[in-house]
């Protein structure tokens, strides 16, 4: 079990976690329709950052690295952790890293090696004076949860005392055109779990969560108590029709836990026809249909490597404010199982939640979080 020391969300809705929570609590969405953006011939809807507004930190950093550094810097400013220590591990969650440098207008003078996420991770950690080899986690859309599970394992094994987990991704012509080739994008704001859902929206963000040993954190901190990765290898892009890997991940983190205590299951909820149906089946098989369910994709789109960290942090903040956030874009249930999803914010006194993700290649991950740890 590990405990949270601090966090940050840097997104088009705000540059702090609290800014982001207030925006979502006020039903704001960062999704906008773009035409001609990234030199793409087809319009798309996404949540994109203003590159010019990103802090620069000097001339030696790419936009992706600047985004990640800005998020980490804010989180570190909220706790007393010294990032230079050898007992601090940096973990970068990203699906694409500096892949934006493939776009001719972004390439500039950057070398080919800068495309490697491991190089970007060293640059980010090095900015804070940390010389320990960082860890890169890139497991499709589950990266953000897999990175937090890696932090749990590293701290639990005693290989580090604290871990700085940062998830980040920027969108590029390569990524958007790839999703368009899959016919996976909705040109309108996405509608998770809705009968009229037609696909996902892309998003840009960075999010950071700093973990340490539970005995070194305040007693009322959020604790990550269980984590599970279950890969069913169903298909290169299509999820299991029986929700096998997702179900097994849910089962692993909730077995023996009184699920009445759960305030919410924050799911992936991409608004693609097969993902939402798969998650509904997995929730049913895991006996979680009575637990409130939500997804944040209607506010941010799919932020890829940032999603698992951003959505974990924002759920923690929302529950601290006694709120289960609404699923924006949802209206009429469009999956085969009676999932407890709502288009309205709901009050809660719950102090525990499950975060669930799935991704290409049949990868699935889940984590159980509790306020103040196990009782």
What would you say this structure looks like, in words?
Helices cover 28% and strands 21% of the residues. It has ten helices and 15 strands. A ten-stranded mixed sheet has the order 5-4-6-8-1-9-15-14-10-11, with helices on both faces. Strands 2-3-7 form a three-stranded mixed sheet, with no helix packed on it. Strand 10, helix 8 and strand 11 form a beta-alpha-beta unit. Helix 1 (17-25) packs across helix 10 and helix 2 (63-76) crosses helix 4 (117-127).
Record the SSE blueprint.
Layout (H helix, E strand, L loop, with lengths): L1 E9 L6 H9 L6 E3 L9 E4 L15 H14 L11 E6 L10 H4 L9 H11 L7 E3 L5 H15 L4 E8 L3 H9 L20 E2 L1 E9 L8 E8 L14 H11 L7 E5 L6 H13 L7 E2 L2 H4 L6 H14 L2 E2 L21 E2 L4 E8 L3 E9 L4
Question: At the third CATH level, what is the topology name of the largest domain?
Answer: Peroxisomal Thiolase, Chain A, domain 1
Shape category: globular
List the total number of helices: 10
- What distance separates the N and C termini? 13 Å
Count of individual beta strands: 15
By CATH, the superfamily of the largest domain comes out as Thiolase/Chalcone synthase
Q: How many domain units? A: 2
